[in-house]
Amino acid sequence: MTRISDALNAYAAFSKPLGDGGMEARDAPAPMPGSDFSSVLKDAAKVAVGALKEGEQASAAAIAGKADIREVVAAVANAQMTLDTVVTVRDKVINAYNEIMRMPI
Q: Which cellular compartments is it found in (predicted)?
């Protein structure tokens, strides 16, 4: 459950505006931890790595005969979904970067 709340907190921090529309950048309050883009990406990466590690640990426990198969399947499915999400986000970021680079100056 912590991974979901971490991801939601990262998303909420990313979606908050820094200030009202009339404020200039120099007047904006200092960003709170997790409110800048690099922090959001770092938090999301930590959540993704955690999910992948849980899947690996569940698989290792299943091989050793110490885990319930349902838990293993759930952990591996969660890791697969997380990996698919990370790959999709990466592809979208690369496409956005390429689109920006094609813009005329």
A: Bacterial flagellum basal body
- Dihedral angle of Cα 88, 91, 97, 103, to the nearest 10 degrees: -100
Q: Is residue 22 part of a domain?
A: no
pTM summary value: 0.58
Q: Give dist(CA 9, CA 3) in Å, integer.
A: 10
- Domain residue limits at 40: 2-15+31-101
User: How many other C-beta atoms lie within 10 A of the C-beta of residue 94?
Assistant: 10
pLDDT in tens, 80-98: 999 999 999 999 999 999 9
- pLDDT digit string (tens) for 18-62? 444 444 444 555 556 557 888 888 888 899 999 999 999 999 999
| DSSP classification of residue 20 | -
* Contact yes or no for 32/13 (Cβ under 8 A): yes
| Cα(62)–Cα(60) distance, integer angstroms | 5
